[in-house]
Amino acid sequence: MTAPPIERILFTEEQVSARIREVAAEISLKFYGRELKLVGVLKGSVFFLTALARAIDLPVKIDFLAISSFGGDTPGMVRIAKDLDDPIQGEDVLLVEDIVDTGLTTRYLLQTLAGRAPRSIAICTLLDRTVRRMVQVPVDYRCFEIPDRFVVGCGLDYKQLYRNLDYIAVLNPDRG
Ligand code: IMP
Ligand code: MG
Question: Which of 11, 13, 17, 84, CA to CA, is 20 to 30 A from 154?
Answer without folding.
Answer: 84
